[in-house]
Amino acid sequence: MSWTGGTVVFRENCYPYSETFIWEQAARLPGSNVVGYRRVHDLPPLTTDVVLGDRHPRRAVVEARLLKLSRRSVWLHAVLLAHRPKAILAHSTYEAWSLLPSARQLKIPVVVAIHGSDVTRRPEAVSRDHYSLRQVNRHFGEFASQVALFLPASRFLAQALRDRGVSSEKVRIHHVGIPIPAAAAPEVRHRRITYVGRIAPSKGVGVLLDAFSRAAAQDPDVRLTIVGDGPLAPSLRDQAARSGVASRVEFTGQRPPGQVRSIMRDSLLVVVPSEVGADGVQEGLGQVSLEAQSHGVPVLVTAVGGLPETLPPEQGAVSPPGDVQALSRAMHQLLTQPKMRCAMGLAGRSWVSREFDIDRQTVELQELLQAVT
Q1: Residue 152: beta bridge partners?
Q2: Integer Rg of the chain from CA
Q3: Which 3-state string (H, E, C) describes 143-190?
Q4: What is the pLDDT of residue 4?
Q5: pLDDT band at 316 (very low <50, low <70, confident <90, very high)
Q6: Rounded CA gap, 350 and 295, in Å?
Q7: What is the pLDDT of residues 246-259, one digit of tens each?
């Protein structure tokens, strides 16, 4: 590990597959160190990581819990005191809340990247186990006054912050971005529709499966690949069997980022069928949509949260959430019109390359962090 003395990116766990975008950003952010408690060995460590659990795993568990419950961590405070970063970047409101006392004592500005569930979930729906987020919601005005800058990933999330009373001067829309591949996916691909993400109620995978069953009745060669895992996976396998499409639906489970990219590149269409969760949670933006489009693969999303913002203006395919018939029609249309798919793929790749390139976005992030110091 080499200490850079610039920005501390704080993450309790480093790094699960679901946070590949944070890993990609941290790897590119000059003068940054990721500081955290536990190592999750899904993604490789960065040379600038400072992770307590690498050397003291038991202490890391204790310190992480103390930070959540009391907003105090002797180890974290000592790290910040010794190295005096110019800014701290947190990727959730609840982690920012926990470290704010140390940051304020040491006069280090805190910037919070907003990705979704912590500001879209209704306060009364937050689990009792999620103590830090419950505290953020209870003291949100105080919390917002102490944060130097909020970086929501979409216009939708920016409005959610303003609706909770955050001053517009403290809100700056910023995309983490994604790496842009040198070449688009080949034109000849498997006749496959792909879903990538957690298999949970708000993700709409059950609706996708029903819609696929209808589309499959009109297209004997099309297949559906579901990449990811979650609590609904067993019931969805049963649903596929009941619908008579089990032999045409593949559940891959969780896969490393490289394998996910290969699956998407070999797909005719990627679908992001999210819904508004029972707890109010909505998609903040939609990294899967961006990544698929970066490969030139057309994407069909639902009109939920920030998902429509991932598509080129007036050129994207958007379906109402929870509407099996509408989703099935849209899928069938794209499956049967190769020229439309090609045009959407080209437009999407151009759009994402222009608006969401991670290298360009990271330069902008560096400027935003410098502005608060």
Answers
A1: 114
A2: 21
A3: HHHHCCEEEECCHHHHHHHHHCCCCHHHECCCCCCECCCCCCCCCCCC
A4: 54
A5: confident
A6: 10
A7: 999 999 999 999 99
The closest of 220, 204, 208 to 269, measured between CA atoms, is: 208
DSSP letter for 6, please.
Answer: S
Domains, the chain, with CATH or none: 7-177+357-372 (3.40.50.2000), 192-355 (3.40.50.2000)
pLDDT of residue 187: 81
DSSP at 307: G
Q: Can you read off the two tokens belonging to residue 317?
A: 């395919």
- Reading the block at residue 263, the tokens are 């699956």
Q: What is the pLDDT of residues 123-141, one digit of tens each?
A: 999 998 899 999 999 999 9
Give every CB contact of residue 310 below 8 A, 6+ residues apart in sequence.
285, 286, 289, 290, 293, 299, 301, 316
Question: Could you give the C-alpha distances from 224 to 207, 208, 213, in angstroms and in order?
Answer: 13, 9, 10
Structure tokens at 8: 């501390």
